[in-house]
Amino acid sequence: MTQLFSRQRMTCAMPRVACLASVWLLGPLLCLAALVGAATGEVVLERKDDRVSVSIDGDPFTNYIFAGHATPILFPIHGPGGQTLTRQWPLVEGVAGDPHDHPHQESVWFAHGSINGIDFWAHIPLQKGGPHPRIEQTGIRVCSSGTLGVLETTNRWLAADGTTVCTDSRRIEFASDGLPTHNGAARTIDYAVTIRADHGPLVFGDTKEGVMALRVRPELQTRNLHESQGAAGQILNSEAQKDDAAWGKAARWVDYFAPIEGSIMGIAMCDHPDNLRHPQHFHARDYGLLAANPFGLHDFTGALKGTGDFTLPAGDSLSLRYLMVFHKGDTAAAGIENRWQKWAQKKP
Which of 52, 73, 82, 296 has the maximal Cβ count within 10 Å? Predict the structure, then answer.
């Protein structure tokens, strides 16, 4: 498969010297206002045998790993301060405080627990030890670097017996903004998936197990569960609901933040207004699972089971898009609502 690179030099709405002068003369808010929402770092994507590595200004950001797992994943995630922000286990053993539960929750991934009755979330095989459902990459269409790193892939969703259930195409955009030492600094992943019912109709089942998901590192949990250690996090959503009150609620975004290695760091997930059933419900758990899900209405709202089912007729497609913000500072310092407002107006 051909690797496409489009290297660009770093650009900014205002020169870097002028920006630094603004910080000194007028304070940090002026520079932040100029930078929020504008990519300022050079993003480099490098194609390898089993992954695409992503770096920003020479520092590691993440890897899109497309082989060796039941679904493509992003791992690890390095925030703007260099700290890893998602759980290391089960990919890395022996990390202090990491809980060993839900082994299918691998850093950042996209899947659903019931498509035509097949579990692509936990990947449960028909027989113990047998083949399991999986999402398999079939190609890379774009892999380009610049102020915005862009990865476009194609994938097929396979039942345990190897039958193709459906296919998808993904566009994932990697970027950074803000000065590295500023509270407002962040790295972002804009993750869009189009699922195609090209092998017959699809029924997305009413289950909380889906779809755009990540598992935070222990410090970002609100309490210690499953033998985790170090939980010191807070959860806040766009509706001002906090911690346990944010679980299962419909929101524009949900943010986790906590002290990590001497700095307040956080992860926010945002739901795009064009998505099905926006604002979607968030599976925001105290043990560190954060997932946006348009289908799990029974679990999230107490509606009759099946209320959240969604049928995609043969030949049709469903597009879903999410923004993940890996940031310094708490929700207010990172300007999560402002970031959502700007991103919500951005068209594919």
Answer: 296
Total of domains in the chain: 1
CATH of the domain at 187: 2.70.98
Q: Is residue 35 domain-resident? A: no
The answer to whether the CB of 44 falls within 8 A of the CB of 143 is no
Whether residue 104 lies inside any domain: the answer is: yes
Domain ranges, residue 310: 43-344
Residue 31: predicted pLDDT: 38
What is the pTM (predicted TM-score) of this model? 0.87
Question: Does 25 reside within a domain?
Answer: no
pLDDT above 70 covers a percentage of the chain that reads 85
Residue 11 maps to a domain: no
In the prediction, which pLDDT does 129 show?
A: 76
Tokens 């190609």, residue located: 139
